[in-house]
Design a protein that fits this description.
Length: about 190
């Protein structure tokens, strides 16, 4: 398992949040030429950094060795070595981690492993046509073998998590962690 310092060393351009006490709590009217963030959104964004710090400073575990009492709702981060690879959010952390890594997990549950398998087999382009679709790839023996290997790889990765029951904070924190750590397997494309 990777040290906290190594994970922290991968963080680029991450600055401690700056709190401003003069931000109004009501809708903000901009003056001409002002280019500032909505103050309510800014407060949300600035409040994410302590959770980010707890996440990256957590002693890593893996899916099999995670302790009892894992929070139900929150953000999770998969790493290999000193490289953060994928961040996700969930309202049922134990179940979601299992879905990412059990051998029988289908493509719509083990999405991180599916992305790894796409990379391993050179099937990088998603499609809505039957040929090359997720279902078709899953039925292909070569891809199925790579997908199984990827799920087992995920099972052995370093894992960190932080509790976050608020849905809006979960969504923002997932994006914040992905941007701050440059997680290569996250994308926020619509389908």
């Amino acid at each position: 398992m990777e040290s906290t310092q190594a994970i922290l060393g991968t963080i680029r351009h991450c600055k401690p949040c700056r709190r401003r006490s003069n931000i109004p709590s009501t809708p903000h009217k901009r003056t001409e030429g002002e280019n500032s963030m909505n103050p309510d959104f800014q407060r949300y964004a600035e409040s994410l950094h302590p959770s980010f710090e707890r996440l990256v400073n957590m002693t890593p575990v893996n899916i099999a060795s995670r302790p009892a009492g894992v929070p139900r709702q929150g953000i999770y981060l998969f790493c290999e070595g000193n490289k953060a690879l994928y961040v996700g959010r969930t309202n049922n952390l134990p179940s979601r981690l299992r879905q990412h890594s059990i051998d029988s997990a289908p493509h719509n549950q083990a999405v991180f492993a599916f992305k790894i398998a796409r990379e391993m087999t050179g099937n990088l382009q998603a499609t809505y046509r039957t040929e090359g679709s997720r279902s078709a790839l899953s039925a292909n023996p070569e891809f199925a073998s790579a997908f199984l290997s990827a799920k087992r790889r995920v099972r052995g990765m370093d894992l960190r998590y932080v509790e976050e029951p608020d849905q809006l904070r979960q969504a923002l924190l997932e994006i914040y962690v992905s941007v701050a750590l440059g997680t290569p397997y996250n994308d926020f494309n619509t389908h």
